[in-house]
Amino acid sequence: MHIASLLVPAIALASLASGQYVVPAADGSDGWADALGKAKALVAQMTQEEKLNITQQNNDFPRVGEIDRLGYTGLFYADGAEGIRGASYSSAFPQALNGAATWDRNLLYRRAVAIGQEARAKGINVQFGPGVNLMRTPNAGRGFEYNGADPYLAGQAGAQHVQGVQSQGVMSTVRHYIGNDQETGRRWTSSNMGDRTAHELYLWPFQDAVKAGVASTMCSYNGLNGTYSCADPMSLGKWLHEELKFQGWVLSDFGAITFGEEIDAANAGVDTTRVADPPSAPFPFGPGSALSAAVANNSVSQDRLDDMVHRIVSAWYKLGQDQDYPAYNTSVNSLSKEHNELIREIGAKSIVLLKNSNSVDLLGAPFGGGAGAGPGGFGPDSDQGNFLGGSGSSYVIPPYQVTLLDALNQQAREQNTQVFAYLDNFNHTVQASQASTGNLAWATCLVDVRQTCGEGYDRANLTASWGGDQTILSVASQCANTVVIYSACGPFNTTTWGDHPNVTAILNAGGLGQEAGNSLVDVLYGVVNPSARLPYTLAQDISDYPALPDLTIETLNTSFVDIDYNEGLFIDYRWFDKNDIAPAFEFGFAGLSYTTYKYSNLSVQPSTATLQKTVAASSDEVFDCLAIITVDITNSGQIGGSEIPQLYIGSPADGAPIKVLRGFDTVGLDAGAKKTVEFQLTRRDLSFWDTYNEGWTLPEGDHQVYIGASSRDIRETGKMKFTLA
Ligand code: BGC
């Protein structure tokens, strides 16, 4: 292993210098004591071969790790944070990024409960997700599987996901740990980041998942500061196990433990890996593997092997999987009407209405139709049907698809309106002439475009696939009321067409899942008052973002290609703020609700105690509440809706961003109603990561408090400071 010199703090290296690092064993903290005690008692009765068996996973029969005589069932897993991957009769939920766009903890929780219910019904013990990598680059191929560009938002969403799935007794797996923020070269790039950047950005949401009790963590393919993530004593050992006191088990991404790294992986904290992947490769773990030889010659200790098994078996107890867990059968029908309705609701509440020139619900009146929406039944990379979400290992085969056209037809039937659908994406001249037939005073032309994406590649640009940007312009050239429905995996470019006077509305739909058409119609007809927020910035130009993947490194490399996170703390809105770059639509953008909200009466109440300046990363005080902020929100418009006030803090710490998100809430308000919203700020929220002291340190001076409807629509400001010991 080589360690990038520039970024790793010297203090941590000292503990590694004396020899092979060995990760601390689980100690039962944070509510795991009972489960760990039971696991130890069971594992004490296992043979060495049985223990080794538990360190590998697959979904075949007989089940790897199962020990009949002890009643231990082993674990089955499933991919897909959008639902259960590759199984029939599974619901296709809106993509994770849409969940984040709701900025609604309750919806995020209910989405996860439903996924957990479906996993449990099929006897799946471990459901992969949430993904909490950050959108460091706007075109990252798997951005749709994650929760946007801000660590606080990603952490909140990740925690809700963990709690929701695990409420059903199903283990969730937070991933991809850590620095797997692009797809290009994911197996041979090293994400090089400083200690402060790691703690304040990339590790932050993983900490929230651990705090929420996540049962497992998946380490990623890439390197971190020159060492493979799955063999890295710094990120796995020091950060995850020592600082966050993670009690669950670590699984390597499939094939991520490279030949020769098995011992380092086990000692750094990996507990289990999938059986040989690719199948021709030598088994990293399990009986007869490199791990079993290493335990025999003591380069991995027996204690470490026991700890690996304790962690896995204690999670099985902790989630209650020792009691009446359903038999594994992925064909069990886990669909339900409730889930369909929930998918529709999350979908509608995740659509960001970026533009609405007419300031009313879009299709409240009869209308004519436009271009683009095709029939259903197509895969993720199709220009037909719905865009449900990106492709790759998270893709769920939908049980059905309510396309936009289906839903529009249904509305037309109920409301005596007329739909004219033109289904072709390529001939812009014909599109324009078709659109001219919709250019009537009472008509609206809908243009449905999309941008495909998926695991394994980053997008080359932020324009729509299949010439969609040109489609928009063709239709807008002929139709005075053109509504754009844009499905995407993340940021996209609106600059060539967004300001066109005939583009009267833009709906950022993301990937809506199986109920896409219904969710869209709910917003188009004003049944749902749009309340979603952008979980990332839409720039005017792709070059405005601080970091883009170098797509030319796609060829396999045998040594690490460095990806230096030179922008440090300044990703997304933090970068735009710092460099005074005007975005097309800013992070947190409120979309255009059909009503208006007034903010008033900000109150800032910092703790008056004399506070210790620095606390260790592993201290419980990291989550102590140090300040309470309240503000009144009034619905000043004519109809009910939900507002999502956002709290940003401008820290006085050296090198801190102008402001960072530290709170949000969903506030449902009838027309004219008012509510007081309260935010609690923890020590971590108000501290900077202090590399020298290896802890969270409160800075001296004024903390600026900003409350607003987006990162650039600040409505109330205040400040506070603390008395430090
Ligand atoms: C992905 C993981 C996934 C695994 C198994 C890998 O390529 O990175 O997220 O769980 O495949 O499908």
UniProtKB/TrEMBL annotation:
<dbReference type="InterPro" id="IPR017853">
    <property type="entry name" value="GH"/>
</dbReference>
<dbReference type="GO" id="GO:0009251">
    <property type="term" value="P:glucan catabolic process"/>
</dbReference>
<keyword id="KW-0624">Polysaccharide degradation</keyword>
<dbReference type="InterPro" id="IPR050288">
    <property type="entry name" value="Cellulose_deg_GH3"/>
</dbReference>
<dbReference type="InterPro" id="IPR036881">
    <property type="entry name" value="Glyco_hydro_3_C_sf"/>
</dbReference>
<dbReference type="Pfam" id="PF01915">
    <property type="entry name" value="Glyco_hydro_3_C"/>
</dbReference>
<comment type="similarity">
    <text>Belongs to the glycosyl hydrolase 3 family.</text>
</comment>
<comment type="pathway">
    <text>Glycan metabolism; cellulose degradation.</text>
</comment>
<dbReference type="InterPro" id="IPR036962">
    <property type="entry name" value="Glyco_hydro_3_N_sf"/>
</dbReference>
<dbReference type="GO" id="GO:0008422">
    <property type="term" value="F:beta-glucosidase activity"/>
</dbReference>
<feature type="domain" description="Fibronectin type III-like">
    <location>
        <begin position="643"/>
        <end position="711"/>
    </location>
</feature>
<keyword id="KW-0325">Glycoprotein</keyword>
<comment type="function">
    <text>Beta-glucosidases are one of a number of cellulolytic enzymes involved in the degradation of cellulosic biomass. Catalyzes the last step releasing glucose from the inhibitory cellobiose.</text>
</comment>
<dbReference type="Pfam" id="PF00933">
    <property type="entry name" value="Glyco_hydro_3"/>
</dbReference>
<dbReference type="InterPro" id="IPR002772">
    <property type="entry name" value="Glyco_hydro_3_C"/>
</dbReference>
<dbReference type="InterPro" id="IPR001764">
    <property type="entry name" value="Glyco_hydro_3_N"/>
</dbReference>
<keyword id="KW-0964">Secreted</keyword>
<dbReference type="InterPro" id="IPR026891">
    <property type="entry name" value="Fn3-like"/>
</dbReference>
<dbReference type="Pfam" id="PF14310">
    <property type="entry name" value="Fn3-like"/>
</dbReference>
<dbReference type="InterPro" id="IPR013783">
    <property type="entry name" value="Ig-like_fold"/>
</dbReference>
<keyword id="KW-0378">Hydrolase</keyword>
<keyword id="KW-0326">Glycosidase</keyword>
<protein>
    <recommendedName>
        <fullName>Probable beta-glucosidase G</fullName>
        <ecNumber>3.2.1.21</ecNumber>
    </recommendedName>
</protein>
<keyword id="KW-0732">Signal</keyword>
<keyword id="KW-0119">Carbohydrate metabolism</keyword>
<feature type="signal peptide">
    <location>
        <begin position="1"/>
        <end position="19"/>
    </location>
</feature>
<dbReference type="GO" id="GO:0005576">
    <property type="term" value="C:extracellular region"/>
</dbReference>
